[in-house]
Design brief:
It is a single chain. The chain is of the alpha+beta class and 414 residues long. 43% of the residues lie in helices and 14% in strands. The protein has a four-stranded mixed sheet. Strands 4-5-9-8 form a four-stranded antiparallel sheet, with no helix packed on it. Helix 1 runs parallel beside helix 4, helix 9 packs antiparallel against helix 10 and helix 10 runs antiparallel to helix 11. The termini are far apart. The mean pLDDT is 90. Bound molecules: flavin-adenine dinucleotide. Flavin-adenine dinucleotide binds next to strand 3 and helix 12.
Length: 414
C-alpha cells in the first residue's frame, strides 16, 4: 500500500495549493483550533457565500459533482486532497455542507430534470442554503417512525407536523422534508420526500439554545403548509429510497473527519501551557496520554487510508465508514477533554476574547458530543458494524411489516 501521491495527484495538489495561496490566508500554528470557535451570524453567512462563489468560479466547488451540474467531476481522492489543502487555510465555516454533501446528490439521483436545473447550480455556488428536515421528536435513529403528514389537495400537498434538530433552518432558503403520506402502509413504505420553501406561510422556526450559547439547531413547526406536487422528489410513497440516498451521503460527508483540532494542536498546547513554571509537556503523565492519542490517531488515519485505497480502485463506500465516525468522534472528544485538563482553571473560561486560544478547546469540548449523535449515534453505528461487517444477527424489528397506523406508540397513533 503506497500512501504517497501519484504523479497526477502531486500535480493536482500543487494546483490546488497555488490557487489557495493566491486566494486565501494560510493558517498559522494555533489557528486551526481557533477557527473552530467561529460562531454563526449574518456576517459569517455573507463571507461563506462569497468564498463559495469564488471557489465555484474557479472550479473548486463540489469537487465530485458531475460537470453537467457545475462540479469538477473529480475522483474521491482528488476531493480528499482538495479538503486537506483547504483545511490549511483560514476559510469560513462550510454552511453549505448539508445541501452540497447530502441533498444535492439526492436530487441528482431522484429529482426531475426541472428540479436538477432549478436547484443544483445555486446550491453549488452557495447562493441558496439548504437544510435537512428529517428528525422528529420520536423519529431520530428510527427515522421510519416519522409522523409529519402530507395530504394531497389538487396539485398541492398540505403539510402538518414538527421536525427537530434542523441545522441551519433559520438561514436556509430550501429544505428537504420527509413526510408520511400513507399511514395504512408499513412505516418505511408510506413516506414521500419533498423540497420545501422555508419561507412558506405556516412554517415556524424556533431556535434551540446550545450549551456553548449558540443556536445552530431549530425546532420547525408546520401548520397547513402548502407545497406544489412539482416539489415532490421521487414517487409518492417511495420517499424512503431518497432518504437512504441522503443518509448514505451523510455518512460519507461526515466520514472519519470529525473535524476539530488535530494531534499537533494538542502537542502545542501541552508545550505552551505553563504548569508551575514548566511546560505541561514535561509531566510524564501528560506525555503518556499524548502518546496514546498519537497511536489512536494513527490507527484511525491508516484505516481511513485503506478506505481511500479501496475508493481509488473503484469500490463504493461501505459500512467501514461507520468505524471512522465512531472511533474518530470519541477520539476528538477525549482529546478535547484532555485539553481541558491541561488548561486547568482556564478551561472554565469560555469568552473567546479572554480565554486561551479564543476558547477553541472549550468550544470543541462542548460541541463534540453532538458529533457522536449526528449522522448516526454510537449505538446505531455499532449496530451497523455488528450486522454488516461482523455479520452478527440483525437488530429486532417487530414493526417492520405492520401498517404504520397500527403500531402501538402511545395514547394516539396518527
Ligand atoms: C450536531 C447535530 C446536528 C443535527 N442536524 C440535523 C439536521 O440538520 N436535520 C435533521 O433532520 N436531524 C439532525 N440531527 C438529528 C440527528 O439526526 C438525531 O439526533 C439522531 O438521528 C439521533 O436521534 P434522536 O436524537 O431522536 O435519538 P434516539 O434515536 O431517540 O436515540 C436515543 C438513544 O437510544 C439509542 N438507540 C436508539 N435506537 C437504538 C437501537 N436500535 N439500538 C441501540 N441503541 C439505540 C441511541 O443510540 C441513543 O443513544 C442533528 C443532530 C446533531 C447532534
Amino acid at each position: 500500500m503506497d500512501f504517497n501521491d501519484t504523479a497526477e495527484e502531486t500535480k493536482f495538489r500543487a494546483e490546488a495549493r497555488a490557487w489557495l495561496e493566491a486566494n486565501a490566508e494560510r493558517l498559522k500554528p494555533g489557528d486551526a483550533a481557533a477557527v473552530m470557535s467561529e460562531r454563526g451570524g449574518s456576517e459569517v453567512i455573507v463571507t461563506a457565500k462569497q468564498w463559495q462563489a469564488k471557489k465555484a468560479d474557479a472550479g473548486w466547488a463540489c469537487m465530485t459533482w458531475p460537470t453537467e451540474y457545475g462540479g469538477r467531476g473529480a475522483s474521491a481522492i482528488q476531493a480528499v486532497i482538495w479538503h486537506q489543502e483547504e483545511s490549511r487555510f483560514r476559510t469560513p465555516p462550510n454552511i453549505f455542507a448539508i445541501g452540497q454533501g447530502m441533498l444535492g446528490p439526492t436530487i441528482m439521483a431522484h429529482g426531475t430534470d426541472e428540479q436538477k436545473k432549478r436547484y443544483l447550480r445555486p446550491m453549488l455556488r452557495g447562493e441558496e442554503i439548504w437544510c435537512q428536515l428529517f428528525s422528529e421528536p420520536s423519529a431520530g435513529s428510527d427515522l421510519g417512525g416519522l409522523r409529519t403528514t402530507a395530504v394531497r389537495d389538487g396539485d398541492d400537498w398540505v403539510i402538518n407536523g414538527q421536525k427537530i434538530w434542523t441545522t441551519g433552518a433559520q438561514y436556509s432558503q430550501w429544505g428537504m422534508i420527509l413526510t408520511r403520506t400513507d399511514p395504512t402502509r408499513p412505516k418505511h413504505a408510506g413516506i414521500t420526500y419533498f423540497i420545501i420553501d422555508m419561507k412558506s406561510p405556516g412554517i415556524e422556526i424556533r431556535p434551540i439554545k446550545q450549551i456553548n450559547g449558540g443556536a445552530v439547531f431549530n425546532e420547525v413547526f408546520f401548520t397547513d403548509v402548502r407545497i406544489s406536487d412539482k416539489n415532490r422528489v421521487g414517487a409518492v410513497g417511495e420517499g424512503w429510497r431518497g432518504a437512504i440516498t441522503t443518509l448514505m451521503n451523510e455518512r460519507l460527508s461526515i466520514g472519519g473527519g470529525a473535524g476539530g483540532p488535530e494531534f499537533a494542536d494538542l502537542m502545542r498546547l501541552a508545550r505552551e501551557t505553563d504548569w508551575n513554571g514548566r511546560p505541561a509537556l514535561d509531566d510524564p503523565a501528560v506525555r503518556q496520554r499524548l502518546a496514546r492519542f498519537y497511536v489512536r490517531g494513527k490507527g484511525l488515519q491508516y484505516t481511513g487510508y485503506r478506505t481511500l485505497t479501496a475508493l481509488s480502485r473503484g469500490a463504493i463506500p461501505g459500512p467501514e465508514g461507520s468505524i471512522g465516525k465512531l472511533v474518530g468522534a470519541v477520539l476528538k472528544q477525549d482529546m478535547a477533554s484532555f485539553a481541558m485538563d491541561v488548561l486547568g482553571p482556564a478551561g472554565a473560561v469560555t469568552e473567546p476574547g479572554i480565554a486561551p486560544e479564543e476558547a477553541a478547546w472549550q468550544e470543541t469540548y462542548m460541541g463534540i458530543p453532538g458529533l457522536r449523535i449526528a449522522g448516526g449515534t454510537d449505538e446505531i453505528l455499532r449496530n451497523i458494524i455488528a450486522e454488516r461487517i461482523l455479520m452478527l444477527p440483525p437488530d429486532v424489528r417487530l414493526d417492520k411489516d405492520v401498517p404504520f397506523k397500527d403500531i402501538p406508540t402511545g395514547p394516539r397513533n396518527a
